[in-house]
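Q: Sequence in, structure out?
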Amino acid sequence: MANVHDDVTQPASQALVDTFAANHRELLRFVERRVGNRAAAEEILQDALVRSLDHASEIDSSVLGWLYRVLRNAVVDHQRREAVTARRLERLAAETPSSVDEDDEAQRVACRCVSSLARTLKPEYADALQRIEIDGVAVKDYAEKQGISASNAGVRIFRARKALREQVARACGTCAEHGCLDCSCAQQ
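A: Exactly. Output:
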């Protein structure tokens, strides 16, 4: 079993490492301009080097040109992954209900302490709950008003709901866990 050091001493691998080291700053700048993030660029660059070492024997032209080709492909892959993540977050934001159920009976029986518990949350969570759940503002519109992306607003309202559920569970105990509508928790 050959170790990594043996691979690096082979002529093709050594030429690749030498070219990479001599052009590191330019290669990093090339990737960073395309992804807009230094940390991501460094990660892409290192991954590309590791993958390139596995295929160094296949280089049949300019090592530097080959490295740039590998980096362009790595940047495209990175951008595709980022786009998939953004689409998933957008879908989450779109799927998040934008208003509470209008059922008068449920509103009448619901625990009155919930609104006071909501005020104990982080201000941005309390505001998101108020605007989206109580006022009925769409997540997309709330995001625009706050100057954040719709996906960020979706995550914020998700976390706000979770935090509120935890507060209600602490205050109301098993009543909150089992969804009983006869709330007898201490009013705050």
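The two ends are 69 Å apart (CA to CA).
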